[in-house]
Amino acid sequence: MANYLHYELDLTPQDTVEVTLDAPANVRLLDDANFLLYSQRKKHRYFGGYAPKRVIEIPTPEAGHWHLVVDLGGFAGTVRAWARVLQEAV
């Protein structure tokens, strides 16, 4: 069983992913290849990082299918997260 929350998103470069947390956590936006590496506990690249505050926004680097992962970095505890996509007004 995975110790992380996982969301799959189809994003455009105009999108920003907004994540609301109930506790500090790591928030990572990964492409398919890096999500596979993450899930295998291998070295991976991501956008985002440790979020000590309640809301974090991550701009989409490029269009495509993305994985949003929220975890506690191996520490005990739980976190709840809500994600939504903010679209830039045109």
Task: Put the structure in a nutshell.
9% of the residues lie in helices and 50% in strands. It is mostly beta strands.
Structural features:
7 strands; mainly beta; 90 residues; 9% helix; 4-stranded antiparallel β-sheet; 3-stranded antiparallel β-sheet
What does this structure look like?
The mean pLDDT is 93. The chain has one domain (5-87). By secondary structure, it is mainly beta. The chain has one helix spanning 32-39; strands at 5-11, 15-21, 25-30, 47-51, 55-59, 64-71, 81-87. The strands form two sheets. A four-stranded antiparallel sheet has the order 1-6-3-4. The protein contains one helix and seven strands; from the N terminus they run βββαββββ.
**Which range does the strand content fall in?**
over 45%
Structural class: mainly beta
- The share of residues in helices is under 10%
Query: From N to C, what is the helix and strand string?
Result: EEEHEEEE
- Biggest sheet, open or closed, and with what strands and sense? 4 strands, antiparallel
Kindly state the mean pLDDT as a whole number? 93
> In total, how many domains does the architecture comprise?
1
Q: Stretches where pLDDT falls below 50 for ≥5 residues?
A: none
Count, helices: 1
**Coarse morphology:** globular
The Cα radius of gyration reads: 13 Å
How many β-strands, per DSSP?
Answer: 7
| Gap from first CA to last CA | 41 Å
Strands of the widest sheet, in order across it, are 1-6-3-4
